Amino acid sequence: MSPSPLAIRTAEAGDLAALLALYRDMNPSDPAIDPMVAQERFTSMLTHPGMRVLVGVADDALAASVTLIIMPNLTRGGAPYALTENVATSTPHRRRGYASALIAHAIELAWQAGCYKVMLLTGRTDPGIHRFYESCGFVQNKTGFQIRRSV
Fold first, then answer.
1. 1 pLDDT exceeds 60?
2. From CA 122, how far away is CA 40, in angstroms rounded?
3. Of the residues 32, 35, 95, 141, which has the fewest C-beta atoms closer than 10 A?
4. DSSP string of 4-50, one letter each residue
5. Could you tell me the CATH number of the domain that includes residue 20?
6. Residue 89: CB atoms within 10 Å
């Protein structure tokens, strides 16, 4: 059976509940977010300059998502750069090419915006995940660092 077609669009206010369910599926151990805080953050994300939450809809369900952030820049002749975050596909929709399609769409939007690079970090250690990102065109040629606030 071939995968259902994927409709890619920018997230809308009514997508919040489905996105929260998708993120819970991706990171089940994450603490739950207060619904009022979630609504406030999501509204901010939808209106934040340079930020787009892309969603893929298949089988009448929100099947996958990726967040694209385009950042203004003063180096590289002023060319912006892009960050991708929260690449997620719901468990029943995995291995259908949906995440690849969303990532390709995000990259194309970044190129259309004049970005000189698109970055992605992952905390996943599964070599299969790394191969997946490589198959999307990403090259592991930088060293990433992060610092997290202790709670």
1. no
2. 26
3. 141
4. PP-EEEE--GGGHHHHHHHHHHH-TTSPPPPHHHHHHHHHHHHHSTT
5. 3.40.630.30
6. 23
| Domain range enclosing 46 | 7-135
Q: What is the mean pLDDT of residues 79-95?
A: 95
Q: Which amino acid is at 133?
A: Y
The two three-digit tokens of residue 110, written as one number: 């970044």
pTM for this entry: 0.92
User: Is residue 55 a part of any domain in this protein?
Assistant: yes
Domain annotation covers residue 146: no
pLDDT at 3 over 80: no
The rounded distance, in Å, linking the Cα atoms of 110 and 117 is 8
**Is 106 strand, coil or helix?**
helix
> What's the domain count of the chain?
1
Q: Return the structure tokens found at 74.
A: 């003063």
Per-residue pLDDT tens digits for 48-67:
999 999 999 998 999 999 99
Residue 148 domain-assigned (yes or no): no
Per-residue pLDDT at 122 exceeds 90: no
Give the separation between CA 127 and CA 44, rounded to whole angstroms.
34
Q: In the numeric block, which tokens belong to residue 15?
A: 């997508």
Measured distance CA(38)–CA(4) in Å, rounded: 30
